[in-house]
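ok posting inputs for the adenosine-5'-triphosphate job
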Amino acid sequence: MSGLSITGLRAGHGRTRVLDGVDLAVADGALACVLGPSGCGKSTLLRVIAGFHPAEQGQVALAGRVLDDGRVRLPAERRHIGYVPQDGALFPHLDVAGNIGFGLPRHRRRERVEELLDLVGLAGLDERHPHQLSGGQQQRVALARALAPEPELLLLDEPFAALDAALRTEVRTEVATTLRKAGTTAILVTHDQEEALTFADVVAVMREGRIAQTGTPTELYHQPADTGVARFLGEANLVPADIADGLARTAFGELALTDGSAADGPGVVLIRPRQIGLTAEPGVGTVRAEVVHCHFRGHDYRVEVAPDPGHGLPERLVAYSDAAPPTTGLVYLAAYGTAHRCPEA
Ligand SMILES: Nc1ncnc2c1ncn2[C@@H]1O[C@H](COP(=O)(O)OP(=O)(O)OP(=O)(O)O)[C@@H](O)[C@H]1O
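and the output
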């Protein structure tokens, strides 16, 4: 089997169990992301894959080769895995070419360094030292250095965390493009949901030492496995509903379900803020609400509302609206699109 395959992985620090049965498969050439709150064990997972930390149980295999099964461990230097740490960790005394070429055989060093400088868009900067580069350029050198020996798998441990917001988006996009061009299988870990959704082909949400759900960014956002994943992926309106015949009967009327075969009965459905519309006048299936907060965010307004009691709705709902809400502070809410049934986490 190609790609990375992790089954039933358990690992920890001393008596503390951090990874408690992690299952994860990353296809050859895919960009994957492990998303989870701080301290959930993301770095520990990467360190086990890289060979810096032992597995206690379970198995980690790459391209069909067992790397660690709790008994047999392949040393890190024989795994063909690249690692980009959070701070890039460049060698300060070496220039860019020296950093990228470090560890490459002498006869192909020069050619490979040039190739990589082109790939990461730093041609001409080979003689600069790390302190003469911006944070984004340093991260690109760290990426080039990790890619230089042509690893079978690249691990990225929150490599964009130290960059400011604008640079982070730019470098992240460039890195994703570079990895796709090189056809490298990669795993990025982050606690930033926007980063995960924009970077990866497949996202694994980690919670309490396990993977709660794996899927494409759109699957995770619109069809989360439970209310915990729903909230972690972005703002979520979780609305009570009666499920029957593939429809959710809510305070907003009937909405089609993402999964038409969902079991009948009472439940909770997810309605994302973009699925809630605000109008000044009542209509069919609208719910009256009071505007509690309204923030202009450039591309839209984030509007927090308190719906009238008596509908069984949560005290607060959130809508993202292209237009500002009416100045009266009273709005009528309508819900659009499909609702997703979400079991409690
Ligand atoms: N060397 C260590 N010794 C003991 N406990 C550790 C060690 N390293 C990490 N831990 C603990 O293991 C747990 C998981 O840490 P880990 O660094 O893997 O989490 P993380 O999800 O990567 O967090 P962050 O996003 O903050 O980097 C945490 O509770 C942490 O305190």
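notes: The radius of gyration is 24 Å. The CA atoms of residues 36 and 291 lie 32 Å apart.
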